[in-house]
């Protein structure tokens, strides 16, 4: 039963109001892409113990998607930010580095 | 015998007698008794039988940890199995029955298992029931099912007569446990101004302290507790709830509390249980400690009890479990039991202390005339349904040279284990405390909150310290730390000063005597409820079980309803010894919520019956209800399956509707169909991605049937899309799909194409929509007057805004039945009036309302697919012959890339065909088509399955659609569908369009 801060309104949201949309920052591969790229896009997930980026929807609320950078092992939340971005904002990356120096997650570090 | 003492009993009111029954026998207790104390007062030593061997079992504890005294409580709609007698407060009229025996408690057939114990060791089931293979299904499984389960399940027709509720609470500091530590921690935390919630599982504050004694700040500890409670009660920022257990600690300070409001006073108004859903910034677990049993032969005989429980019964309820008692211990604390018993006038024969020397409490005991035997152990307890005598031997050795002493009760103490459950639920780690031989919370590794800091603090004896002075200073510090972590400034007050008798160190004793021979070990119980003995754990270790988690599952140690509260540490120590490993290396099993079982009613709360799930109703719902609607749930909606007239069966009604709609005029309430407005400069581009066919080129005023696939290529929805104006489309979805497809669109707009200028709004409930269907459809609309609905003015697959009769409406000329058909949307508030006018005007045209089953049959006659029938999440448009709806012009749409994967393009995929039974019968729903040969499991090879199957009144025969391997290439072939009724249905593969193949009827 996590609590996550809504990056749009600043409200603290209870997990019961939220819907998890799985791993964030997936890059879409459409027609013409290789089987390998499409497979990675559709099915291959980091599923990491530790630093992780997840999509969350404020389903029983404002209906907005956002991304949570959190630690699946310690349950610490490093920050949340709107889903309308292709990479984590610098302040979120800094917050992770402060706690987990040398972290990396897919192409981010 | 166990009996009520003339004096003592701080919790009972001797002026108020309470009558109850146990196994039908009327008994008496006092107000303030628990069922356990009252049973003991009535000399009911034996209260149940164990799970596996059906051994006689008595009360062993006095609280939540009790493994034996489980009873069936209440009657009829209020019957509940497996209720702990030790936590059941007595009330007038209570009825309890003992469990796990047949024909009765005293004489039980299943007890033969105990004689067979030698042949029923750990893992017995796994070893025995494997061969011969067919025996599992016909002999072993029925036998095990017959004997499985401890209590009796409530009657399947009974319904819980009580109500339950959920309660949401937010607090700065939550203190779990209202003993001295919890009270002190709450007071200290509240002193900072923090909002404090204090919950206690029993009906009383103070925990064990008033029984165990000692002084605080110069006053007896029970007076100190009274003072603390009254202070806390006056503090505005403190909320206190007793009979409220901390059930589980979860992520980020979420805690479940389980409040039992009226279990002790049935008939009280209001809910019986309340589930507290708490968010706390900081949680203090002041959950105390639980005494461990000692492992000696016969430690499960009724009359053998935890030493602490025995003095609880004396001090709290004025009951002594025996008249001639022997105390067995490895620590000083148990001497308190001997002293209290002696002072109450009970004969304490001796204290058998496994240690060579004891502390000052032993001196006090001796001074009272109690014989103390250092270095001694209990070799064996003798007696069946109650303790008769005890054989005493040296602790060192195998248990020879015994001296027998007659007695009727044994108090045992193997030391204390902190209740670390709530600390551990959300990831708090433990350390092994060598001196006290127990696991306690590791303060450096607490469960972490959202900010990465710990949010649970353990206080008092649940944190390790057992003596009153340390318990108080520890709790005071925890209260301050919690307040500070919650953002408050604690006052710099001094912790209250506790005084209690100093104690000599305990010595771990995991087996009594230390090298007990096998005959004794086979009678030394670890888990009383599940019948796991020392010898079982040792056997598991010999058979190669090294992990404590595996050993637990193999032996069932700690898997009973008490979750090993008494047995786990002892079992762990035996396992570690057998593996020659250190205890902390072996580790503990996982602590999982809830701490003790909580009622299903509390979990469900108010969500039962009508409020379990809200029902969605269309504007014409009440009319349908008054006109014979046989209801069908579709998503959260209720739709009319058929309108049944007096004297008709549902089947008759469906057939009548099916014929009338084709021959005259039918009305369908289509309001439940999803209606999504998609609007914006990029709406066309967006819909081209959402649908497999092209939507951006649709002309204003026109409609197009569209398919939606997931990115993985599978069909997820279908419906008619209408273009409303240059940048607005209205997308119809399936009844169950509106919210799902709306969310699907939003997800893509927000997470992938967030720079596209598109809005999506779900307007499903804004409109009432009526399908006017049949050869007379145009006539009835023309009679009502208004917009021109002629073939030229409103052609097939177009829509117009206008007026029909008195109603502003939007008329779509679309058809899901193959008939001349208009779907007319009016504002929801006008739906019923519009429906009434159609029914009235339609009389001369033979109007009848029709339901969803008729809708299904009409569409099946036309070979139209239904999402959820022809699709199941594994079906792609190509399987259904819908290639025409897959745009070849578009570079991209959701699912396009997936359709080019090899499995999707596989020619062996099952494909949609029509199925016509040879004899006209109806193929059973869900039947599979079988081909030649068998698979690896000896089952016949499957070559397809039925997706829709109906009796068509229009064709007077069974019709079906199905997915068949190479189906479209096998027209005319006969395939076989074995039914579960033993019959085999033969059907010819045909075109899925059974009726009006050229579509002439809808184009008039």
UniProtKB/TrEMBL annotation, chain A:
<dbReference type="InterPro" id="IPR006279">
    <property type="entry name" value="SoxD"/>
</dbReference>
<dbReference type="GO" id="GO:0046653">
    <property type="term" value="P:tetrahydrofolate metabolic process"/>
</dbReference>
<dbReference type="InterPro" id="IPR038561">
    <property type="entry name" value="SoxD_sf"/>
</dbReference>
<dbReference type="Pfam" id="PF04267">
    <property type="entry name" value="SoxD"/>
</dbReference>
<dbReference type="GO" id="GO:0008115">
    <property type="term" value="F:sarcosine oxidase activity"/>
</dbReference>
<protein>
    <submittedName>
        <fullName>Sarcosine oxidase subunit delta</fullName>
    </submittedName>
</protein>
Automatic annotation (TrEMBL), chain B:
<dbReference type="InterPro" id="IPR029043">
    <property type="entry name" value="GcvT/YgfZ_C"/>
</dbReference>
<feature type="domain" description="Aminomethyltransferase C-terminal">
    <location>
        <begin position="911"/>
        <end position="996"/>
    </location>
</feature>
<feature type="domain" description="GCVT N-terminal">
    <location>
        <begin position="620"/>
        <end position="890"/>
    </location>
</feature>
<protein>
    <submittedName>
        <fullName>Sarcosine oxidase subunit alpha</fullName>
    </submittedName>
</protein>
<feature type="domain" description="SoxA A3">
    <location>
        <begin position="523"/>
        <end position="604"/>
    </location>
</feature>
<dbReference type="Pfam" id="PF13510">
    <property type="entry name" value="Fer2_4"/>
</dbReference>
<dbReference type="Pfam" id="PF07992">
    <property type="entry name" value="Pyr_redox_2"/>
</dbReference>
<dbReference type="GO" id="GO:0046653">
    <property type="term" value="P:tetrahydrofolate metabolic process"/>
</dbReference>
<dbReference type="InterPro" id="IPR027266">
    <property type="entry name" value="TrmE/GcvT-like"/>
</dbReference>
<dbReference type="InterPro" id="IPR023753">
    <property type="entry name" value="FAD/NAD-binding_dom"/>
</dbReference>
<dbReference type="InterPro" id="IPR006222">
    <property type="entry name" value="GCVT_N"/>
</dbReference>
<dbReference type="GO" id="GO:0008115">
    <property type="term" value="F:sarcosine oxidase activity"/>
</dbReference>
<dbReference type="InterPro" id="IPR042204">
    <property type="entry name" value="2Fe-2S-bd_N"/>
</dbReference>
<dbReference type="InterPro" id="IPR041117">
    <property type="entry name" value="SoxA_A3"/>
</dbReference>
<feature type="domain" description="FAD/NAD(P)-binding">
    <location>
        <begin position="172"/>
        <end position="422"/>
    </location>
</feature>
<dbReference type="Pfam" id="PF17806">
    <property type="entry name" value="SO_alpha_A3"/>
</dbReference>
<dbReference type="InterPro" id="IPR013977">
    <property type="entry name" value="GcvT_C"/>
</dbReference>
<comment type="similarity">
    <text>Belongs to the GcvT family.</text>
</comment>
<dbReference type="Pfam" id="PF01571">
    <property type="entry name" value="GCV_T"/>
</dbReference>
<dbReference type="InterPro" id="IPR028896">
    <property type="entry name" value="GcvT/YgfZ/DmdA"/>
</dbReference>
<keyword id="KW-0560">Oxidoreductase</keyword>
<dbReference type="InterPro" id="IPR006277">
    <property type="entry name" value="Sarcosine_oxidase_asu"/>
</dbReference>
């Amino acid at each position: 039963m996590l609590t996550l801060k809504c990056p749009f309104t600043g409200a603290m949201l209870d997990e019961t109001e939220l819907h998890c949309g799985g791993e964030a920052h997936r890059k879409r591969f459409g027609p013409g892409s290789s089987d390998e790229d499409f497979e990675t896009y559709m099915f291959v997930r980091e599923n990491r113990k530790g630093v992780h980026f997840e999509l969350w929807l404020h389903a029983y609320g404002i209906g907005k998607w956002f991304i949570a950078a959190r630690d699946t092992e310690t349950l610490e939340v490093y920050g949340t930010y709107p889903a309308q971005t292709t990479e984590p904002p610098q302040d979120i990356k800094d917050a992770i580095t402060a706690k987990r120096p040398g972290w990396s997650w897919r192409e981010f570090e | 015998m166990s009996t009520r003492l003339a004096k003592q009993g701080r919790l009972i009111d001797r002026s108020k007698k309470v009558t109850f029954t146990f196994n039908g026998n009327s008994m008496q207790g006092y107000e303030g008794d628990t069922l356990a104390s009252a049973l003991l007062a009535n000399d009911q030593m034996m209260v149940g039988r164990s799970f596996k061997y059906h051994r006689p079992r008595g009360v062993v504890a006095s609280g939540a940890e009790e493994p034996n005294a489980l009873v069936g409580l209440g009657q009829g709609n209020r019957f509940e199995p497996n209720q702990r007698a030790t936590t059941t407060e007595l009330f007038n009229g209570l009825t309890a029955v003992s469990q796990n025996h047949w024909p009765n408690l005293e004489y039980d057939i299943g007890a033969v298992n105990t004689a067979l114990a030698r042949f029923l060791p750990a893992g017995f089931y796994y070893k025995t029931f494997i061969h011969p293979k067919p025996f599992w299904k016909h002999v072993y499984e029925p036998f095990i099912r017959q004997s499985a389960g401890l209590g009796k399940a409530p009657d399947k027709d009974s319904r819980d007569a009580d109500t339950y509720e959920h309660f949401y609470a937010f607090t700065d500091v939550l203190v779990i446990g209202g003993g001295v530590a919890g009270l002190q921690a709450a007071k200290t935390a509240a002193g900072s101004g923090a909002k404090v919630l204090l919950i206690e599982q029993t009906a009383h504050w103070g925990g064990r302290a008033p029984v165990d004694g000692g002084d605080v700040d110069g006053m007896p500890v029970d007076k100190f507790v009274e003072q603390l409670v009254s202070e806390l009660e006056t503090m505005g920022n403190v909320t206190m709830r007793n009979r409220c257990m901390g059930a589980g600690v979860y992520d980020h300070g979420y805690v479940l509390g389980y409040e039992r409001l009226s279990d002790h006073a049935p008939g009280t108004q209001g809910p019986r249980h309340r589930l507290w859903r708490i968010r706390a910034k900081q949680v203090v677990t002041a959950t105390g400690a639980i005494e461990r049993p000692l492992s000696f032969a016969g430690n499960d005989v009724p009359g053998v009890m935890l030493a602490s429980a025995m003095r609880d019964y004396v001090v709290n309820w004025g009951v002594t479990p025996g008249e001639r008692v022997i105390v067995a211990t490895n620590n000083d604390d148990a001497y308190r039991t001997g002293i209290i018993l002696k002072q109450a006038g009970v004969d304490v024969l001796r204290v058998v202390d496994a240690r060579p020397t004891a502390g000052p409490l032993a001196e006090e005991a001796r001074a009272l005339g109690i014989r103390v035997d250092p270095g001694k152990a209990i070799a064996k307890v003798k007696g069946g349904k109650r303790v008769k005598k005890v054989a005493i031997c040296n602790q060192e050795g195998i248990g020879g040279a015994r001296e027998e002493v007659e007695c009727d009760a044994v108090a045992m103490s193997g030391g204390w284990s902190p209740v670390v459950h709530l600390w551990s639920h959300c990831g708090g780690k433990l350390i092994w405390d060598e001196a006290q031989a127990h696991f306690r919370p590791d303060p450096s590794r607490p469960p972490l909150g959202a900010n990465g800091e710990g949010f649970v603090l353990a206080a008092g004896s649940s944190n390790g310290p057992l003596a009153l002075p340390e318990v108080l200073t520890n709790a005071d510090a925890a209260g301050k730390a919690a307040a500070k972590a919650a953002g408050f400034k604690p006052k710099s007050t001094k912790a209250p000063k506790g005084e209690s008798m100093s104690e000599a160190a305990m010595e771990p004793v995991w087996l009594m005597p230390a090298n007990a021979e096998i005959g004794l070990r086979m009678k030394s119980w670890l888990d009383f409820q599940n019948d796991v003995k020392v010898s079982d754990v040792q056997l598991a270790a010999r058979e190669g079980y090294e992990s404590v988690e595996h050993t637990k599952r193999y032996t069932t140690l700690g898997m009973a309803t008490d979750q090993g509260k008494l047995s786990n540490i002892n079992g762990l120590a035996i396992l570690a010894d057998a593996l020659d490993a250190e205890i902390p290396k072996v580790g503990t099993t996982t602590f999982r919520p809830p701490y003790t079982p909580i009622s299903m009613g509390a979990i469900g709360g108010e969500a039962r019956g009508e409020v379990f799930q809200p029902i969605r109703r269309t504007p014409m719902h009440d009319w349908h209800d008054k006109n014979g609607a046989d209801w069908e749930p579709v998503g959260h909606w209720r739709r009319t399956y058929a309108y049944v007239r007096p004297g008709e069966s549902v089947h008759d009604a469906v057939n009548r509707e099916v014929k009338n709609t084709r021959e005259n005029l039918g009305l369908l309430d289509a309001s439940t169909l999803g209606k999504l407005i998609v609007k914006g400069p990029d709406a066309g581009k967006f819909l081209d991605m959402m649908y497999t066919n092209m939507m951006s080129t649709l002309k204003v005023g026109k409609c197009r049937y569209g398919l939606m696939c997931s990115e993985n290529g599978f069909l997820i929805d279908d419906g008619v899309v209408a273009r409303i104006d240059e940048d607005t489309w209205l997308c119809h979805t399936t009844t169950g799909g509106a919210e799902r497809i709306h969310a699907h669109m939003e997800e893509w707009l927000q997470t992938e194409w967030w720079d596209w200028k598109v809005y999506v709004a779900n307007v499903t409930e804004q409109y009432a929509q009526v399908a006017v269907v049949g050869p007379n459809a145009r006539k009835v609309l023309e009679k009502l007057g208004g917009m021109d609905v002629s073939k030229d003015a409103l052609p097939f697959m177009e829509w117009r805004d206008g007026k029909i009769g008195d109603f502003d409406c939007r008329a779509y000329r679309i058809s899901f039945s193959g008939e001349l058909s208009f779907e007319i949307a009016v504002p929801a508030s006008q739906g019923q009036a519009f429906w009434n006018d159609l029914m009235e005007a339609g009389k001369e045209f033979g109007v009848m309302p029709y339901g969803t089953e008729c809708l299904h049959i009409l569409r099946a006659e036309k070979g139209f697919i239904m999402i959820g029938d022809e699709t199941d999440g594994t079906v792609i448009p190509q399987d259904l012959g819908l290639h025409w709806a897959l745009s070849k012009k578009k570079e991209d749409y959701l699912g396009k890339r997936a359709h080019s994967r090899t499995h999707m393009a596989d020619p062996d995929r099952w494909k949609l065909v029509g199925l016509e039974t040879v004899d006209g019968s109806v193929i059973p729903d869900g039947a599979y088509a079988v081909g030649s040969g068998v698979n690896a499991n000896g089952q016949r090879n499957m070559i397809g399955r039925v997706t829709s199957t109906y009796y068509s009144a229009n064709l007077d025969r069974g019709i079906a659609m199905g997915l068949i391997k190479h189906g479209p290439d096998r027209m005319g072939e006969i395939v076989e569908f074995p039914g579960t009724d033993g019959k085999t249905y033969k059907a010819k593969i045909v075109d899925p369009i059974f009726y009006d193949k050229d579509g002439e009827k809808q184009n008039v």
